[in-house]
């Protein structure tokens, strides 16, 4: 693997001091060509390893049988490396935990799987377009029925609270943030349009959104006043993680929501898909719903938890951070993560 592709990962997570690998050919315009320098890559790497260890040989080498740099090492280990005896003898450094949060593919792209995905893509694009158009045009009460006809499924657990009565402050639904679709699915389940506060939603997603969105500024005082105004009008949805996360853990919750109301209803959101993830760390966020709806049978799970009792909110003297951490713990326990 070219050094430039592995160096930052090896140094940050594997705690490497030096990284030696093949070098890419760079054009005179400063672009990587994709070609690798040197005719015999393995011998080039061996020469560079020998230059790094001039005075003495490396103590231990791990590599394939064909790796010529292993001959420079005092001791050689070939697969399998991680036997209990190896770990005891060499005290191998345990790497830091790594979270992979990129890429659209749900399954490993083996040749049969890759072929199936390629054949499905044209159908999936048309299906996604139909689902999105139907979602925009239909009223909230009709969407659950049409979603079943178009292959989707929503599983609801728990009992949602009734709509806020006139003159009373609305309920704040605190959701996990698995995809951009979370507030939309919540509104579909409740059969009414509930505004959602957002941080970095794309303009295209705002235009296509079938529910009202309230863009926040990340300025704490300004955002607090905005959320209070929306709660005075009725119910509101907030995702305190701040960004989507598809991995089996929750990102740290912002505590701002806990300061603004005592009527907090936690909602655990999760989804299951077959081909494409609905969220990714990079790329165009506006495509997230498109990829979600391209799946043959997307499934969403919505679990309503009980409204927080007064003694679990800031009105009982608890700090906003304690309330936010408590909500995060019960949501994680509900999802089993």
Automatic annotation (TrEMBL):
Report domain Phospholipid/glycerol acyltransferase positions.
171-272
Q: What's the protein's topology in the membrane?
A: Multi-pass membrane protein
Q: Where in the cell is it found?
A: Membrane
- Record carries keyword Disulfide bond: no
Major location (coarse): membrane
Give the keywords, sorted: Acyltransferase, Membrane, Transferase, Transmembrane, Transmembrane helix
Identify the InterPro entries for this entry: HAD_RAM2/GPAT1-8 (IPR056462), Plipid/glycerol_acylTrfase (IPR002123)
Q: Can you tell me where the transmembrane regions are?
A: 114-141
Q: Which family does it belong to?
A: Belongs to the GPAT/DAPAT family.
Under what name is this protein listed? Phospholipid/glycerol acyltransferase domain-containing protein
- Protein's organism: Salix suchowensis
């Amino acid at each position: 693997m070219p050094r430039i592709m592995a160096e930052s990962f090896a140094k940050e997570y594997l705690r490497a001091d030096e990284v030696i690998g093949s070098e890419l050919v760079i054009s005179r315009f400063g672009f990587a060509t994709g070609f690798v320098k040197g005719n015999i890559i393995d011998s080039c790497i061996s020469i560079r390893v020998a230059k790094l260890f001039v005075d003495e040989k490396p103590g231990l080498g791990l590599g394939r049988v064909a790796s010529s740099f292993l001959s420079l090492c005092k001791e050689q280990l070939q697969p399998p490396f991680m036997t209990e005896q190896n770990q005891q003898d060499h005290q191998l450094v345990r790497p830091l935990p790594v979270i992979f949060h990129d890429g659209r593919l749900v399954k490993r792209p083996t040749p049969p799987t890759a072929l199936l995905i390629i054949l499905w893509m044209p159908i999936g694009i048309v299906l996604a377009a139909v689902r999105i158009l139907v979602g925009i045009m239909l009223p909230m009460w009709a969407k659950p029925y049409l979603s079943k006809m178009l292959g989707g499924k929503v599983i609801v657990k728990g009992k949602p609270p009734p709509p806020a009565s006139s003159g009373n402050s609305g309920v704040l639904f605190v959701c996990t943030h698995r995809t951009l679709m979370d507030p939309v699915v919540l509104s579909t389940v409740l059969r009414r349009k509930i505004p959602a506060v957002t941080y970095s939603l794309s303009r295209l997603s705002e235009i296509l959104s079938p529910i009202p969105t309230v863009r926040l500024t990340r300025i704490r005082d300004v955002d607090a006043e905005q959320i209070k105004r929306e709660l005075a009008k009725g119910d509101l949805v907030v995702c305190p993680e701040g960004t989507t996360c598809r991995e089996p853990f929750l990102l740290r919750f912002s505590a701002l929501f806990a300061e603004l109301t005592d009527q907090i209803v936690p909602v655990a959101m999760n989804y299951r898909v077959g081909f494409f993830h609905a969220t990714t760390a990079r790329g165009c966020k506006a495509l997230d719903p498109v990829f979600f709806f391209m799946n043959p049978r997307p499934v969403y799970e919505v679990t309503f938890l009980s409204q927080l009792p007064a003694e679990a909110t800031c009105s009982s003297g608890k700090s906003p951070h304690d309330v936010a951490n408590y909500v995060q713990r019960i949501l994680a326990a509900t999802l089993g993560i």
